[in-house]
Write a structure and sequence with these properties.
heterodimer; A: 564 residues; Rossmann fold; six-stranded parallel β-sheet; 20 strands; 38% helix; globular; B: 161 residues; Alpha-Beta Plaits; 2 domains; 9 strands; elongated
């Protein structure tokens, strides 16, 4: 039997898992890996900082539904991945991170570029491995992909000491999955589903609350079918955007701190909330004791630990969103649907009225360059067909509010962790996964500077992403809080005047466009999409524009602040 | 309230760290913890004593189940278990009080495991309340050191069949 190196075995295993693209950065302890990669047809996207690799892998996974893979060297390389891994963990994204490690016999000696990677990443991974015996390598890789992609998805780290990657192993060694303690529940309990059907059928004021779990389990079709046929309005979480078409009249859009007024009112008045693949995050619920005060809660989630964690649930259903919704649909429509619809008619009409009465708004007549106007134009020009990535902060909320998301896997944003600097590498990962789509990063001037070195990654790897920079010269979201809650004392949030973003992108070999006037917005966006290169449009937006509506921290979501 | 959680885990490197890390991360204090192999050498048992409200303990158990190497978790019902802890107590003595201490040791069915000129080393097993009563008594003579294993517990067998 012929022998191959551990590094070669990793490549073989990645191929077996169907990996086509990986994101990474070489270093001392992964030279053997990169040497094996040299002869492989796996595409490697060389980033400029490992955080970019983790975010790109995360976004690649979100847009394709496959497992994203990133690679770093030991020590600082691995610790640079940490933010990206934590981000994937909070948003339940399947990634496998392969990190180099010092030789087995050096572990624990504070060797050069040594860090306790499994220790550091234990709280932010679904699982992690330190490979101690080369014999286990194929099984570990197989298990890692299986764990990352099944159940509630999440990141898995494989820490590979250099003597493992240079060691020899039989080429034919096959990995097996041996995980006696890991059996995710996919099918929902039929008795519970039956109870949920009764509850929904008899409810007069139900809302569906659809989250990222609906997208990751590819259940958007089922959710949409159910909502439309049963005439139940749908609220989404930030990560659930795109799980239900926002151009449908039943879409109440995003709820919560910067959600729509009508979504928050729907939660407050509902008699039944059907949560699917959501975790009732504090940014959605606001003051918990006043969240959905009149509603019973049916909670469908694949992770039993999410059920009852935040809100009291009357009917818990543990299972995969897709499987549970299929069963729910089958049972529900055995009943007389007309009766059920008639019961909900008044409620639906009421919500449609609220939707007309309280639309998301901004001053359309203003001569100033408004961020909401830019996002609306991006939607118009792309006809809603682009993949929109965002940074974190005001830019993210404007993107969520004013673009209309109609398809799953089209809105890519850092939800739970709120990672500034996510958007640009996410756009790069998205473009690598979906080269056929326009990929746009709706960015802020604060966030993008956390990762601006990745402009080089986009240009040099020929992944032409389009950065729509909403430049207000502030760390805008913090400035907004300072304005509203700290007497406009703008402590350390003004970042004006030191970066020329057009020159910056040009320095990296991309194309820069500056827009200061409203009438130039549409033309610039069109031009950016036509250019086959990374383009950054530096929109000089109104500096002190705020994101509204807004629920003040600690307030109930029924109380919203708005434009004066 | 104190809860005794008995956790069966795969006997693999790093598992204990993951479990104890989870407790601290979710804001729970471990009162005591005992680990050892079971009848199956691939499986270890971790007995954890934790102070928490009922809802908190339910959440911690759910979170523990999410750890890949955790096989089974049992919250033991305090009214239907046998619990034990082994404690080594080094107590200072002199010629005058040595006999008195020996009497206490006999009453509590403890054992003397080492004798020195100015101290005795005593081994005692039992429930938390027995050990507390014992150490309270010895305290009057001056306890030099106490080493405890942490509590272990096993549910009682079915008495009906």
């Amino acid at each position: 039997m012929s022998k191959i190196t551990g590094a070669q075995m990793i490549i073989n295993c990645l191929k077996q898992e169907g990996v086509e693209v990986i994101f990474g950065y070489p270093g001392g302890k992964v030279i053997p890996f990169y040497d094996a990669l040299f002869d492989s047809d796996i595409k490697h996207v060389l980033v400029r900082h490992e955080q970019g690799a983790a975010h790109a892998a995360d976004s690649y996974a979100r847009v394709t539904g496959k497992v994203g893979v990133c690679v770093s060297t030991s020590g600082p390389g691995a610790t640079n991945l940490v933010t990206g891994i934590a981000n994937a963990h909070m948003d339940s994204v399947p990634i496998v991170a392969i990190t180099g490690q010092v030789a087995t016999e050096e572990i624990g000696t504070d060797a050069f570029q040594e860090a306790d990677v499994t220790g550091i990443t234990a709280p932010i991974t679904k699982h992690n491995y330190l490979v101690k015996d080369i014999k286990n390598l194929p099984s570990i890789i197989k298990e890692a992909f299986y764990i990352a992609s099944t159940g509630r998805p999440g990141p898995v780290v494989i820490d590979v000491p250099i003597d493992i990657s240079t060691g020899l192993i039989d080429e034919d060694e096959k990995g097996i999955i041996d995980l006696p303690g890991y059996k995710p529940t996919l099918k929902g309990n039929q008795k519970q589903i039956k109870q949920a059907v009764e509850k929904i059928y008899n409810s007069k004021k139900p809302v569906i609350f659809s989250g990222g779990g609906v997208i990751s389990s590819n259940a958007s079709k089922e959710l949409t079918e159910f909502a439309i046929k049963a005439r139940i309005p749908v609220i989404t979480s930030l990560l659930g955007m795109g799980s239900f078409p926002e151009d449908n009249e039943l879409a109440l859009n995003m709820a919560g701190m910067h959600g729509t007024r009508y979504a928050n009112m729907a939660f407050t008045d509902a008699d039944l909330v059907i949560g699917v693949g959501v975790r009732f995050d504090d940014r959605v619920t606001g003051k918990l004791s006043e969240f959905a005060p009149n509603a019973d809660i049916v909670h469908i989630d694949i992770d039993p630990a999410e059920i009852g964690k935040v809100v009291k649930t009357i009917i818990p259903i543990v299972g995969n969103a897709k499987d549970v919704l299929q069963d729910l649909i089958e049972r529900y429509f055995k009943k007389d649907n007309k009766k059920s619809i008639a019961r909900k008619e008044k409620w639906v009409e009421h919500l449609l009225d609220l939707k007309k009465k309280y639309p998301l708004q901004y001053d359309k007549e203003s001569p100033n360059l408004k961020p909401a106007y830019i996002v609306e134009k991006i939607y118009e020009v792309t006809k809603g067909d682009a993949i929109i990535c965002t940074e974190v902060g005001q830019n993210q909320m404007w993107a969520a509010q004013f673009y209309r998301f109609t398809k799953p896997r089209s809105f890519i944003s850092s939800g739970g962790l709120g990672t500034m600097g996510y958007g640009l590498p996410a756009a790069i990962g998205a473009k690598a996964g979906r080269p056929d789509k326009h990929v746009i990063d709706i960015a802020g001037d604060g966030s993008i500077q956390m990762v601006s070195q990745e402009l080089a990654t986009a240009v040099s790897n020929k992944l032409p992403v389009k950065i729509m920079l909403l430049n207000n010269g502030y760390l805008g979201m913090v400035r907004q809080w300072q304005e509203l809650f700290f007497n406009r004392r703008y402590s350390e949030t003004c970042i004006q005047g030191c970066v020329d973003f057009v020159k910056l992108i040009e320095a990296y070999g991309g194309v820069g466009i500056r827009v200061k006037e409203k009438e130039d917005v549409e033309g610039a966006i069109k031009k950016a999409l036509e250019i086959d290169n990374t383009v950054l449009i530096d929109f000089w937006i109104e500096e002190e524009e705020n994101v509204y509506p807004m629920v003040a921290p600690g307030a109930p979501i029924s109380e919203m602040l708005d434009h004066k | 309230m104190n809860h005794i959680i008995s956790v069966l885990v795969e006997n693999k490197a790093g598992v204990l760290a993951k479990i104890s890390g989870l407790f601290s991360r979710r804001g729970f204090n471990i009162e005591s913890l005992a680990v050892g192999p079971t009848e199956n050498k691939k499986i270890s048992r971790i007995t954890i004593l934790v102070n928490a409200e009922k809802q908190g303990i339910e959440q911690v158990i759910k979170q523990l189940y999410k750890l890949i190497n955790v096989l089974k978790i049992q919250e033991l019902d305090p009214s239907n278990i046998v619990e034990r802890e082994l404690v080594l107590v080094k107590v200072s003595t002199n010629a005058k009080n040595r006999a008195e201490i020996l009497e206490v040791v006999n009453i509590f069915r403890a054992n003397i495991v080492d004798v020195a000129k100015k101290s005795l080393l005593i081994e005692i097993t039992g429930t938390t309340s027995k050990i507390k009563a014992f150490t309270d008594l010895l305290d009057t003579y001056g306890i030099i050191e106490i080493i405890r294993t942490g509590k272990i517990a096993c549910s009682r067998g079915n008495k009906k069949d």
